What we know:
The chain is mainly alpha-helical.
Amino acid sequence: MLKPVLVPTEETQPSDRSASIEDTTMRFAIALLAVAGVVVSSLALQVHYSNETEPCSINAKWDCGIVNHSPFAEIFHIPVAALGIAGYLAMGSLALFKRRRLVAALALGALGFSLYLTYVEKYILEVYCIYCVTSLGIIVLINLLGIWWVAAEWRAGPAQ
């Protein structure tokens, strides 16, 4: 009796399956980090509109109130934290729609802006915000994953 022989096709190649798993993992990891970024930015936005003593006011070097009430906390009367929420929502949505290059480009711009704000915290305000530093960590991770995701596309070659 003859047994059928399975011949791998382009659609069932192991590398295609692993690429698909990697693609799914990356987009959901970036989306999850974006949700974390929305949460952190929302907490910073709450501090921006609050006049109370904040739980993140730890000592003279760590005070979210000072940072979020400074002139650097707004751009054209829009709170930086609100821009952060919009940016994270955009990155998360783009990741879910598999727009890896746009995710990487937006994340790179966000990293540059976040590094500028960290410079302001360190050298101008001389005080840090725990939410801002956490957001910087999240955007660094999104950048690393975004670069890896784009590189994976390049490694796979042109789409067919």
